[in-house]
Amino acid sequence: KMLNVKVITLLADITLLAVITLSVATDLFIIFIVVMLKSKTFVKKTRSGGIMKIVREHYLRDDIWCGSEVCTECKQEESVLQKDACIESNLCSFPHYLLPDTNVVLSQIDILEDPLIKNVIILQTVLQEVRHRSAPIYKRLKDILHDKEKHVYTFTNEHHRETYIEREQGESANDRNDRAIRISTKWYSDHLNNKGLKVVLLTNDRGNKEKAEEAGLLTYRSDVNNEITSSKVLFSEHLPLSRIQSGIKSGTFQQGTFRASRDNYLEATVFVHGEGDDSTEVLIQGLQNLNRAVHQDLVAVEILPLNQWVAPSSVVLQDEGPKEDDVTEEEEAELKSGPSGVASRKPTGRVVGIIKRNWRPFCGMLFLSQIKEATRHLFTPADRRIPRIRIETRQAATLAGQRIMVAIDGWPKHSRYPNGHFVRSLGSAGDKETETEVLLLEHDVPHQDFSQAVLSFLPKMPWNITEEDMAVREDLRNLTVCSVDPPGCTDIDDALHCRDLPNGNQEVGVHIADVSHFIRPGNAMDLEAANRGTTVYLTGRRIDMVPELLSSNLCSLRSSVERLAFSCIWEINDKAEIVQTRFTKSVINSKASLTYAEAQMRIDDANMNDDTTKSLRGLNRLAKILKKRRIEKGALTLSSPEVRFHIDSETHDPIDLQTKELKETNSMVEEFMLLANISVAQKIYDEFSECALLRKHPAPPPSNYDILNKAAKSKDLVIHTDSAKALADSLDAAQVDGFPYFNTLLRILATRCMMQAVYFCSGMDSDFHHYGLASPIYTHFTSPIRRYSDIIVHRLLAVAIGADSTYPDLMDKHKQSALCNNLNYRHKMAQYAQRASVAFHTQLFFKSRGILNEEGFILFVRKNAIIVLIPKFGLEGTVFFENKDKPSPKLIFNEEVPSLTVEGHSFNMFDKVKVTISLDASNVQHQKIRMSLVEPVISGVSVAPSEPEAKRAKLDR
C-alpha cells in the first residue's frame, strides 16, 4: 500500500515528470507518473507601479479512478460505486449511477439524504460550487459523502486530463461549470458504456438538460413538471442583493422579518428592528405586495407614500382552496375592509426583495388534483401562514390521508404558489402519535432520543451523595422541607421550608435542584440541554431538556430521599421584610411531596399541627403579605383561560376538560419563587455586571392597549395605561354590576396586550425592568431541571459565592447574548407547541361529544365574525356570519366601538351569547371547533340548540 506520497521535484516542459517518493512497508522506491501541466501567464500592476509576471499552473492527471466496482481499467484499491446499482425507479429500470448538478444539490439535498438514494457521483465542480454558495448544505453534503452505506463517490474532474475544460471567451463561470458537468457525464457514460451501467445527469435547468440531450446524454430534469408554464407575470421581480443593500443604506428600503397573518392570507406584517427595543411594523396587503415572501423570511420592503397607507383588515379571510395563477379583483377587494380613519392607518409597504429565506421542510397534507392520473398536486401546510406548495409526485394515491413533509424549491414570478418536493411521510392524519410528531416538527422542538454521547455523561448507578459532597455543602437534612407541585409532577425542581427563629423572626428557604452539579460546562449533555433550552409539556407527554435519570430521579427533590440542592435562605420579620439573605450549596431531605390541593387541605385543617403543616402555614401567611406589597408597587395580576385534561389511563384519550382552579397554595409557591429569582438576580448582577443572565419584560407600546381601552369604554369604564401601577389599579377597579366575570375577561384581554418577556445579557442592554412584576431586576433560578437559563444562573451564583469555578464562555457577554437568543426562541416555540397540543386534545374531546350547547362571552368583534370565549372549557372559537351555501345576512361593522350589527342586532365585546360547539372534521388537515349562534335568536342566522337541550327545554315547558 502507498503511504505518504510526497512530490520531491517537478521537471516541466509540455509534459511533466513528477518524482514521487513512496514508502511501502519498510522499503522506499521511486516511480514516475505522467501528468499534464496547464499554465496561464498574465501580468499584474503592483502598488509601486511595477509589473509583476504571474504564472498559474493547473496539473492534470490520467490516473484518477472512476470509483466503480465494475471498472477493470482504473487502478483503484477500494471501489465506492456498486456493481449492482438498481435504484427502484419508474423512470430508470436499468442499473445506473446518478450525477446531480449543483442546483439539484442545493435545492434538493433532502432527496440525496434519503437512504434509498445510493450510488451517486458528486463532481469536484459541484462540490466546490456548493461550498461557496451554502455552508449548511455543504456540511450536509460532506456528511453524505462520509456515509459508506450511501456509496457516494467524489470524482475530481477538475484534475482529470479528459474532463478538465478551460473557460471560453465570453462564457460565464456558471455556463463553464455546467459545461464541465456535461463533459464529465459524457466521459463517465463512455467509460462505463460496455459495463451494463448508465449514468443519469440530474438537473433542474432546462438549458442544461437540452444541451446534455444534444450530446446524447441520459438526463432527468428533476422539476420539469413542476414548472408553471403560464407566461403571465403575477409578481414583481425581486431586486438583486446589491440594489437592496444600497437601498437600505440610503433609507429607501427597510429590512425586517416577514410575519404572515394567521387570520388573513392576503395580509402580513414586517417587523423592522431598530436600536434596542425600538421596532417598526410595516403592514403588507395583497398578493402582489406580499411578493412571494414566506413567513419568517428576512425581506426588504419599500414604504408606500402616505396616501397609500391603510388600516389592518378586520376580516377573517382564509385561503380555502386552490386557485388559478391569477389574482381576482374580488379577492383583493376583500382587503378593503379596514377602518377608513386616518388614525387607524399604519405604515404600509411592499416587499421588493428577499434577503434571506427561512424555508424548512413543512408538515401538512396533499390536496389531490381533480385531473385523473395527474402527477402535479397542491400541498397544504399545517401552518396557515405558509402558502400552498405545488409538488410533483406519482405517489398521490398512497399519500392521500397522510401527514407528509414537503420542502420548497423556489417560487417563480408567474406562479401563484411556490414549487417544492416531497420529503417523507409522517403517518396517518388524526393519529395521536402522528399529530404529536407534526406539532413538534412544526414548532422546531428537538425531541429525538438522547444520544449515547449525551447519556455517557450521566452518573453511574447506584448513585449516592459522597463524603466529598458533604464536605463542601451545608447539611440541611434536619429542616422540615417539602415540595408543592401540580398532580403527577415527577420533575420537582423546588422545595420550601419555614421555621421560627429565636429572635422572633422566621427563616424561609427556597431549595432548588442542583442540576449544575451533574451537567458540567461544555460536555455533550450540556450542549444538548443548551440547544433544547427548555422542557416542553404537551398534553399527556413531556419532552425533557435533560435525560430522565436526572429530571425524574437524581435531580428531582422527591420526599424521603437525600438530594443535592442550591438554597436561597432569608431571615424575614413579621412584616415579610428581608433582614438578610444568604446562598449556599446544600443537602436536603424533603419530608413531603404535596399537590397544591393537598397542601391547601393541610393549611385549612385546624386539627393538623405537624411540622410540615406549620411550615406551610408560615409560608402562606408571609406569601400573602409579599403579594399584597408587590401589587401595591404595580405588579399585574392577569388571567388566561387555561384548561386541564383528564386522560383515560388505557386509551390516553381526554375524558374530561375543565379550567384550572388556582388555590392559595399556587400563589404561595409563586411568591417565594419570585422572591428567590429577584434575590439571585441582584446577587449575580452585583458580582458580574457585564455577563449576568437576566430576564426582562418590556412595557407595551401605547397602541397595544387600543383594544383594551375600547372594551372598557363599551362599559363606560376608563383604563389608565401610563404605568404598570396605573394599569393594575384600573383593572382592580373595573367592575360591572351583575357581571362578575367581566373583570376576568378584561384581564384576559390585558394579557393579550403584553409584550413577550425575554432573556438578555446584562452587558448588552441597559433596560432591566420587568413590567409585569414591577421589579427593577429579575432572572430565572428556580427551575433548572426544565430551563437551561436557570443552569447558567446557578453557575454564575456558584462562582459568586465561591462554590464553583468559572469558565471562559460564562464570562463572554457576546456568547451569553447568543445563548439568550436561542433560549428566547425555544421558549416561544415551546409555548406554541403546548397550545397546539391543547387544541388537538380539545378536538379529540369534542369528537365523541356530538354537539354541545354552552354559554360564552364575546372576546373580539370582526367584520364578518365574533370570537367567543367559553369559560367552562377555557375555549375560544369563531362564529362566522357568512356562509357560502346560503345568502349572507346584512352586516354593519363599526371599528371604533367595535361592534358588528347582524340583521339589526348589535354584538359588542363581552356580550353574553349561547352557542353550539361541535367538531368540524370536514377538512382532515384543519379540523377545528365550530361554533354556531343559538342566542340571541336572529332569523336566518341563529341555529336551533342541540337535541339533548331541546328535549330538556320541551320537558320544562
Automatic annotation (TrEMBL):
Keywords: Acetylation, Cytoplasm, Endonuclease, Exonuclease, Exosome, Hydrolase, Magnesium, Manganese, Membrane, Nuclease, Nucleus, Phosphoprotein, RNA-binding, rRNA processing, Transmembrane, Transmembrane helix. GO terms for biological process: CUT catabolic process; nuclear mRNA surveillance of mRNA 3'-end processing; rRNA catabolic process; rRNA processing. Its cofactor is Mg(2+); Mn(2+). Residues 318-344 are annotated as: Disordered. SMART domains: PINc, RNB. Residues 473-803 form the RNB domain. PANTHER family: EXOSOME COMPLEX EXONUCLEASE RRP44, RIBONUCLEASE. This is Exosome complex exonuclease RRP44. The gene is DIS3.
